[in-house]
Known about the structure:
By secondary structure, the protein is an alpha/beta fold. 35% of the residues lie in helices and 16% in strands. It has a single domain (3-246), classed as 3-Layer(aba) Sandwich (Rossmann fold), CATH 3.40.50. It contains seven helices and seven strands, in the order βαββααβααβαβαβ. Strands 3-2-1-4-5-6-7 form a seven-stranded parallel sheet. Helix 1 crosses helix 7 (222-235), helix 2 (55-64) runs parallel beside helix 4 (98-119) and helix 4 runs parallel beside helix 6. Bound molecules: NADP nicotinamide-adenine-dinucleotide phosphate. Residues 9-15, 35-37, 53, 78-81, 107, 111, 149, 151, 198-199, 201-202, 204-207 line the site of NADP nicotinamide-adenine-dinucleotide phosphate (NAP). It holds the Pfam family adh_short.
Amino acid sequence: xxxxxxxxxxxxxxxxxxxxxxxxxxxxxxxxxxxxxxxxxxxxxxxxxxxxxxxxxxxxxxxxxxxxxxxxxxxxxxxxxxxxxxxxxxxxxxxxxxxxxxxxxxxxxxxxxxxxxxxxxxxxxxxxxxxxxxxxxxxxxxxxxxxxxxxxxxxxxxxxxxxxxxxxxxxxxxxxxxxxxxxxxxxxxxxxxxxxxxxxxxxxxxxxxxxxxxxxxxxxxxxxxxxxxxxxxxxxxxxxxxxxxxxxxxxxxx
Length: 254
Ligand SMILES: NC(=O)c1ccc[n+]([C@@H]2O[C@H](COP(=O)([O-])OP(=O)(O)OC[C@H]3O[C@@H](n4cnc5c(N)ncnc54)[C@H](OP(=O)(O)O)[C@@H]3O)[C@@H](O)[C@H]2O)c1
């Protein structure tokens, strides 16, 4: 089956690697890559679109290309921020800053959800994939897999080290919003599977200031993570649930 792929946040480290990896696969028909700044590579299968990720711009973009979005079988949303020139993740509660916290919620939680909101009505209709025929048709019908980049530090159970209030909370909120969407989408389009994906510590600008204590074997390249992510999307089956999984395919506790 030919895949029509959308990558949002396509100019970041992981987003770029996912675009490139999908473009190089024979089974990919087209990659639509949305980013604020454009891509640093060209490929005949890749169409780059620019967007500032604001609500009106997201809506306008999807409405301008209805045919592309109707064909989608794979969606990867890579937006995320941990630090900026003016903000470092909090080590102590005294460092909480409302503006910085709101900014991280906007980028890490709200922006991915706005893309899901815009996309659902455009996805291929459910009439090709009835729930009662699920088992029989898994291998013949189109499955739509939507992955949003989350993070293990968004796990409430796994939080043993503390710190990073805003980033942790924004990813935990993202997971809850995604779980809610998985329930609603199952009712409205049972061909769709949602994944919240933890890539592991990956060598990108986001993790760069925090890499010194990571053993080399545990600092992944973006190409490695892209391959792991794509393999998991290929295996994922629609079941009405959100899966919170890491790069190795292991479930993460909520
Ligand atoms: N790297 C790691 O170790 C690691 C670990 C766990 C989870 N993650 C998650 O993986 C995802 C990808 O991160 P990365 O490592 O590839 O980081 P990155 O290279 O810094 O990429 C940042 C991403 O966030 C988007 N972004 C940045 N500022 C934004 C803003 N103001 N508004 C909207 N979008 C904005 C960028 O979109 P544009 O393309 O439009 O610029 C880009 O997709 C993030 O969700 C991150 O939380 C990463």
